[in-house]
Design brief:
Largest sheet: 9 strands, antiparallel
Strand content: 25-35%
Shape: elongated
CATH architecture of the largest domain: 4-Layer Sandwich
CATH superfamily of the largest domain: Metallo-dependent phosphatases
Number of strands: 42
Radius of gyration: 35 Å
Distance between the termini: 43 Å
Helix content: 10-25%
Structural class: alpha+beta
Amino acid sequence: MKFRQLLLVVLLGILSASPLLAQTSVPAVAPDNIGHHRHLHAHNPPHPKAVDARRFFTSRTGAELPLPSEQDAFFFVVFGDRTGGPAKGVSVLADAVRDVNLLEPDLVMTVGDLVEGYTQEGRWLAQMREYKVIMNRLLCPWFPVAGNHDVYWGGPEDEKPVGENEAVYELHFGPLWYAFEHKNCWFIALFSDEGNPETGKKSFGRPECQRMSPAQFDWLAGILHKAEDADHVFLFLHHPRWLGGRYGDDWDRVHDLLVKAGNVTGVFAGHIHHMRYDPHDGIEYITLATVGGHQSGAVPSAGYLHEFHIVTVRKDQIAVAAIPVGEVMDPREITGEMQTECVELANQPLDINSDVMLARDGGGRGDVTTTLKNTTSRPIHATIMTDSRDARWMMKPDHHHIEIEPGAEHAFTFDIGRLGDSLDKAYRPLELAVQLEYLGPGFRYPLPERRVALPIAADIAEPPQPAEEHVLQLISRGAHARVPSSSVQAPDGPLTLECWVWAKSFDRHAELLAKTESSEYGIYVREGRASFVIHLDGKCANASTKEPILKPEQWHHIAGVYDGRFVSLYVDGQRVAQVKRSGKRTLNDLPLMIGAGVDGSGAADSLFRGAIDEVRLSSVARYIGERFTPERRFAPDDDALLLLHMDDAGAHWLYDASPQQAHPMLMNNAAVGRSP
């Protein structure tokens, strides 16, 4: 997204030259008041602007709005190397062409290495046709520059033609050096592989082969003289000879010629497959990375990536920006229907079924299946993976790739096993990672990756009751515990949900115990108030306190009771709210969260910060009347559907003392420790 924001800034700068747009005065460097630390400096002075009543119209009064200068501005694009990489490099080139067609510059320049080359004429011609077919899809003119891959011979030495592949290049691509004028700017393409002037040998690694011939040098001097009245002169060649080293020092005399001309603004090259900026004597020397060529990707943010340059030209200055290939979006493609489909797909609940059961030694086996439906009108590409930082997990396969047609669904099954060792502190959960791409007509729209811990059941031993009280500590960001819906199947009818809770503050909205998502039941706290909600006959029944009654840094017992006729809320044994309501409970398949709420996809939200103890879910109405004395530790009985004493955490589970043995999973560093 950062690259797209940069692109937007560049394009707005281009458009600001239009008399149709007005803008207010903005400082060259805006205050850093949003935590943004990239591109805070401006390379150029602000664009000229002035208040001009002849071009500004309104029927209102207000602050004066300066208008941009009416001087012409335009922009062009520069492509880096296409070759030296895998065959799919032509696909990267095609993506770059699609990107540039959305921008519609005046023209596109290249810096060479258009074909793989190093071959004879037959294969060379096939590669040339492939490149030109793709480049000819550009809406604007494009101009080639010859690189070593384009002109070096790769056949038998005794069949090597004079100049190697120079003749076939000029026949199909264009002259080895040339120039043209556009909007009072000159564009000059140079040839940096003329070879050794005495032997004709070509090599980009030998200084004696990297010299400009008198014929090209004299031609360049003549063109610079012809362009002496131009606003800008731009040069393009394949090898960045100004870097010296194996290129020798021949560029020094060329550089002196450019400096003498006085209006050479930028020189662009490629070959080294990463970006560089080496300004010298007022001339901007710019080296591009790749558009499909071999790319190590060593440090993408430092210029090792597939990209192209955008150059915006004004009379007295230029702006230069690099855009990663594939980052340009088509706003005309993002219709209301498409946007809605992508959001619905991203929020689709994950239907996960697991029969994996771990024994007390940590070993076990089973299948995990997740079903994904394409709810959109376009194909989607799905990558589903299982992953864990615990090397004792075994997954087969470790991932699935598939394209799902509109309206279709697909079930992904994994055979899961774990080595019998122990359920120790080194245990890490097994996660399911879901990566989806919406395949639009001209762009692949990746959705945010979703990761969920797989619901793995475990047989854990009952921990001994500690000498001092232990509680569930929910301090880390996102910390909570969850019980799969299949483990807490509360029958329709009476129900009691309760816990003890402690917090430094009850100011913000949080959910203590919740299975609610327009259904089921939960206990909430907010600004010192408490609520118990339960959904009956599709409607929410809410018993809430009207005034703040929860005190920070103090333990409170909160209980929600539904007895079939009334929904009641108790705080510290006192009934504080009651509403009359009956009906059939609205069910869902979402997990019961401890210390959080749950959204429609089964993810945690509205998290609670503090401590929770003695969680109990019961299939009876345990409390009636106005008042009772809450127990600090609940005794197990047959009516308990979930009973958590928080005595200890066996690896990543809380022990459930109820007959259900549901054993919630701890998430995001939720931990059991001493009471505050």
